[in-house]
Automatic annotation (TrEMBL):
The chain crosses the membrane at residues 250-274, 281-300, 315-336. Residues 257-352 form the Neurotransmitter-gated ion-channel transmembrane domain. One of its GO terms (cellular component) is plasma membrane. Residues 1-21 form the signal peptide. It is a multi-pass membrane protein. The keyword Amino-acid biosynthesis does not apply. Keywords: Cell membrane, Ion channel, Ion transport, Membrane, Signal, Transmembrane, Transmembrane helix, Transport. Belongs to the ligand-gated ion channel (TC 1.A.9) family. It is found in: Cell membrane; Membrane. Residues 31-249 form the Neurotransmitter-gated ion-channel ligand-binding domain. PANTHER family: NEUROTRANSMITTER GATED ION CHANNEL. It comes from Mesorhabditis spiculigera. InterPro entries: GABAA/Glycine_rcpt, GluCl_TM, Neur_chan_lig-bd, Neur_chan_lig-bd_sf, Neur_channel, Neuro-gated_channel_TM_sf, Neuro_actylchol_rec, Neurotrans-gated_channel_TM. This is Uncharacterized protein.
Amino acid sequence: MPVNGPSLVLLVIAWVPLALSQGQSAGIQEQLILNNLLANYDMRVRPPPTNASDPNGPVVVRVNILIRMLSKIDVVNMEYSMQITFREEWMDRRLAYAHLGYQNAPKFLTVPHVKDNLWIPDSFFPTEKAAHRHLIDTENMFLRIHADGTILYSVRLSLTLSCSMNLQLYPLDTQQCNFDLISYAHTTKDIDYEWDKRVPQPVQKKPGVGDDLPNFMLMDPININNDCTSHTNTGSYACLRMELRLKRQFSYYFLQLYFPTSMIVAVSWVSFWIDMHSTAGRVALGVTTLLTMTTMQSAINAKLPPVSYVKLVDAWLGACQMFVFGALMEYAVVSYQDSSRQAERKRIQAIRKNQKRGREIENPGYQPPCTCHLIADSEPQPLRARIRKWFTKPDYFPAKIDYYCRFWVPTVAAPPQLHLIGRGARVADL
């Protein structure tokens, strides 16, 4: 049946007061239910056991967590920051209202303002260093009372938590940070925690969480199966544990650590190809690369906490520094051997010169041998001939040391270094 304009206006005018009255009556009904529930409620007493058939049983608190943000993995202070939505659910039959006979009673009451008037589990996080609730623009929490007495408490928290890190495989390490939840005052006879297995994932994370960290990646799945019950002199306390596995990204350290140090070692090996008599060049090259390696080692260790064990990065930097120092010491040996042979050569030349002078005195017509070939040999050689000379094994012993070092040092040094990286990567993946 078509409705004309004036009739539609009258219908709306008549419906609005009715809707408002129904909303007001619903709000009044919730107030009546709350007043009835809290009239004889004592928040100082824990709820009856969840299992009604066991009068001495504990209150079972089901927990699920949403990880909203993971940030600031601080290796020096061994801590990390996380923002979560923390939810607890338990049964308190004293707050059940399904049996009270209210007409059209709501499925649940959302009443955050009565939180301070209800019993709530005294949960705390043992590894917490700092924490705060979010109050802008209102406190980010809610509390629901279901008709059967089930209480759902949800709150958004920002936490800074400690993480005991093992840096032996740094920077190819994977760190495990434990997030524990435990009751402060109630033993396992009073409160028992369990993950909420009614949901597919008791621990969820928002899409992208753990993928945007600068140096780490949060690995899946998050393990929640390990027991962490705390046994103390005052009793045993139920505990839940969430294990976060943080794998360090290798690409940053390849560009900032492994590649530069490898280049410094390679530059130090250039000394083997420089003429042994270029003392200034070879010494300057060796000292410069050694100081650069020392500076890099100090800068890298400044970003790490002082620990009593040897780290993988220490082994790498120590090996690099050993190769650089070895190249400098190799020239010291070559220079010493060359100087010793030069002194011997000068002594022999002096003897020959004296013998030659004696022959000239005895034989005035004596003619010295021709030295034209020496002048010809002193002319500049083509580039190809000089390169061929580098790869030709010399007879002179000091030059022979340089010759062997050109090829054997890189051949011997590369495999252990690559093995060190590969072994660390394999262990980190276990």
